[in-house]
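> forwarded from #structure-qc
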């Protein structure tokens, strides 16, 4: 028995930590249980990225309109571009009972936690800083300046990791996916998330006692 509403999970991690691959795999394995929120960004698409799949790629004006209308749960500036989480899809999926994953950076993660305190915060890291640098360089999609900026940002973000609830070390992909799934499953059983069920059981128990 578990509560019906999904859990909102924010997954952050250094750029190059492999969090995107973990989430993609999580959704492939458990398509009915998870929904991945697609963010809006003013960044240019990378080769192979599709509008509406990786991101909604929008202009700065469109992004500002979304802010003004209150369409975003949170937004942040990251290495020269805006990124934000559209509200409607997240709310709809949570109500449908799916665990919604937001793959966002630390400023946004903390804002979401402030607005929606039930949010679960996970942080993904590669096994070492050396590995992180190698992954960023190996990706081949960013200029050396952008890689430098992302490493600088990673160093800053490393200072905020303690504000997350779980650390996931991305060494072996499938093991990592299993771990993330288990963490979220366990969260469903946390007493604080099960108040409605407990109240129901207690109500029924009291009615038994009254009847006897
Ligand atoms: P990238 O340009 O590599 O796709 O993303 C850069 C950073 O922005 C990553 O850390 C990613 O998790 C974060 N990000 C993506 N979408 C959002 C969002 O909607 N809000 C916030 N705050 N960060 C986001």
């Amino acid at each position: 028995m578990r509560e019906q509403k999904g859990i909102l999970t924010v997954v952050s991690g250094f750029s190059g930590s492999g969090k995107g691959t973990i989430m993609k795999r999580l959704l492939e394995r458990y398509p009915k249980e998870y929904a991945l929120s697609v963010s809006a960004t003013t960044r240019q698409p990378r080769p192979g990225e599709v509008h509406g799949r990786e991101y909604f790629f929008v202009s700065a004006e469109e992004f500002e309109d979304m802010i003004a209308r209150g369409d975003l749960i949170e937004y942040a500036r990251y290495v020269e571009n805006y990124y934000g989480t559209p509200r409607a899809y997240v709310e709809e999926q949570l109500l449908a009972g799916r665990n919604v994953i937001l793959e966002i950076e630390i400023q946004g993660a903390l804002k979401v936690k402030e607005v929606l305190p039930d949010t679960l915060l996970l942080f993904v890291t590669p096994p070492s800083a050396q590995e992180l640098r190698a992954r960023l360089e190996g990706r081949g999609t960013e200029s050396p300046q952008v890689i430098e900026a992302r490493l600088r940002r990673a160093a800053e973000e490393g200072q905020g990791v303690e504000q997350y609830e779980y650390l996931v070390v991305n060494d072996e992909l499938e093991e990592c996916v299993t771990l993330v799934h288990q963490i979220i499953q366990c969260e469903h059983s946390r007493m604080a998330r099960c108040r409605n069920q407990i109240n129901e059981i207690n109500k029924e128990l009291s009615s038994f006692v009254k009847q006897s």
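QC bot note: The chain has a mean pLDDT of 93. Helices lie at 19-29, 60-69, 87-95, 106-115, 129-139, 144-158, 173-188, 195-211.
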